[in-house]
């Protein structure tokens, strides 16, 4: 039986900066929309550092947190896969999704689940705005999540990772095959054997 996201995880909006972010060498690192990669991972290698006031613990990221894009066309999360060496601030309008208990929900499973068509359809049906698409915190918290036992969650996570690896290899193989055939056709066009 599905459970609402708010029953299994905390959803918190990131730190709201009152003005444009100004880089500061001695400041705190901040995760922004641009730091979420194409493969839905939080890239912490080149975070902008800014001077900030008081930040709540709930606006800091840690290993296993999901960073959810609340605005734009892509309403999918990115997973925090590296253990931060220092406090990293999440900037609004991003949401931090943190599972309440890893004994009940694997963050990797929740990340996978939020990418599935059923979850994405639910979120798409709750988008507000015309020029700037947005999903509210309440809508995200109300998302029904199918929650199998931990061993089943782990099997799903492992199988999804294998599928992604296979797709990556097939794409690389296809690109190499295209390049090989293109080269052979060019040689044929030039009369070379």
From TrEMBL:
<dbReference type="InterPro" id="IPR052021">
    <property type="entry name" value="Type-I_RS_S_subunit"/>
</dbReference>
<feature type="domain" description="Type I restriction modification DNA specificity">
    <location>
        <begin position="3"/>
        <end position="159"/>
    </location>
</feature>
<keyword id="KW-0378">Hydrolase</keyword>
<dbReference type="InterPro" id="IPR000055">
    <property type="entry name" value="Restrct_endonuc_typeI_TRD"/>
</dbReference>
<keyword id="KW-0255">Endonuclease</keyword>
<keyword id="KW-0540">Nuclease</keyword>
<comment type="similarity">
    <text>Belongs to the type-I restriction system S methylase family.</text>
</comment>
<keyword id="KW-0238">DNA-binding</keyword>
<protein>
    <submittedName>
        <fullName>Restriction endonuclease subunit S</fullName>
    </submittedName>
</protein>
<keyword id="KW-0680">Restriction system</keyword>
<dbReference type="GO" id="GO:0004519">
    <property type="term" value="F:endonuclease activity"/>
</dbReference>
<dbReference type="Pfam" id="PF01420">
    <property type="entry name" value="Methylase_S"/>
</dbReference>
<dbReference type="InterPro" id="IPR044946">
    <property type="entry name" value="Restrct_endonuc_typeI_TRD_sf"/>
</dbReference>
């Amino acid at each position: 039986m599905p459970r609402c996201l708010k029953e299994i995880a905390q959803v918190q909006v990131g730190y709201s900066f009152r003005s444009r972010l100004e880089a500061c060498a001695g400041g705190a690192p901040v995760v922004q929309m641009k730091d979420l990669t194409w493969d839905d991972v939080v890239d912490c290698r080149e975070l902008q550092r800014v001077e900030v006031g008081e930040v709540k613990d709930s606006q800091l990221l840690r290993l296993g947190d999901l960073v959810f894009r609340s605005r734009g066309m892509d309403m999918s999360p990115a997973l925090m896969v590296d253990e931060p060496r220092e406090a990293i601030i999440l900037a609004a309008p991003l949401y931090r999704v943190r599972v309440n208990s890893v004994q009940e929900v694997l963050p990797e499973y929740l990340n996978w689940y939020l990418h599935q068509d059923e979850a994405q359809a639910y979120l798409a049906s709750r988008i507000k705005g015309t020029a700037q698409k947005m999903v509210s915190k309440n809508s995200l918290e109300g998302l029904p999540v199918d929650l199998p036992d931990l061993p089943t969650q782990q099997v799903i996570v492992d199988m999804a990772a294998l599928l992604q690896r296979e797709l990556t290899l097939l794409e690389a193989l296809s690109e190499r095959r295209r390049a090989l055939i293109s080269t052979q056709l060019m040689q044929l066009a030039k009369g070379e054997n």
